[in-house]
Design goal:
The chain is α+β, with helices and mostly antiparallel strands. 36% of the residues lie in helices and 19% in strands. It starts with a strand and ends with a helix. The chain binds adenosine-5'-triphosphate.
């Protein structure tokens, strides 16, 4: 799976339709302070379903909508689409190209789409769960998080590596498995007790 393109319109400082294409390898976005570099990573988080406005450096949901400048009126809707090459079927959907879209109106109404078909936020979260791109993944690392990682204790850093390597997921499943095993052992004991009473 690879992000190949992003389209923004009315999102933060991107009033006009803006199309960014991403080639294979590393893409660096450069520009003067305040030119909108971080707004691009905010757009990635937002379209992937981020609900916490502080993670998007805002106070309220509508802060992602272009709020106007001295020369330009504000807009009524923000829209971001993110295109994925899914030829390796990382996303569990029968399309080799997948596009997810999020739209927010100033009225508060919001819309989500997968391949231009309306869906729920939950469907977006499900589609990206366990792909490394989902909510709470390390796919987007903001500036202050870099400091936090560098200053973290070895134990905390280990958790980060486990998350990146996808081990946390298995640790969670192991805990579930151990819990079920303990429950089964308790049930077996009860069966043993019943058998001894009946014998
Ligand atoms: P730096 O290099 O300093 O980190 P940057 O290139 O990452 O800067 P951003 O933080 O992405 O810049 O962009 C900040 C700009 O986005 C500011 O000029 C701010 O006014 C503008 N901006 C943020 N939200 C909106 C909005 N809703 N409407 C219009 N402009 C916005």
């Amino acid at each position: 799976m690879q992000v190949v393109k992003m389209e923004l319109r009315g999102f933060k400082s991107f009033a006009d339709k803006t199309v960014l294409t991403f080639d294979r390898g590393i893409t660096a976005i450069v520009g003067p302070n305040g030119s909108g570099k971080s707004n691009i990573s905010d757009a990635v988080r937002w379209v992937l379903g981020e609900q916490n406005v502080r993670q998007l450096r805002g106070q309220k949901a509508e802060d992602v909508i272009f709020s106007g400048t001295a020369q330009r009126r504000s807009q009524g809707v923000a829209e971001v689409s993110l295109y994925f090459d899914n030829q390796d079927n990382t996303l569990d959907i029968a399309f080799s190209e997948v596009v997810i879209t999020r739209r927010l109106f100033r009225s508060g109404e919001s819309e989500f789409y997968i391949n231009k078909r309306p869906c729920r936020l939950k469907d977006i979260h499900r589609l990206f769960a366990d792909t490394g791109m989902g909510q709470d993944s390390m796919a987007v690392i903001e500036q202050n998080r870099v400091d936090r990682i560098l200053n973290s204790k070895p134990d905390e850093r280990r958790i980060i590596f486990e998350e990146v390597a996808g081990i946390s997921r298995f640790k969670g499943r192991k805990q579930d498995g151990l819990r079920k095993l303990a429950e089964t052992e308790r049930n077996l004991e009860r069966v043993g007790d019943l058998m001894s009473v009946l014998a």
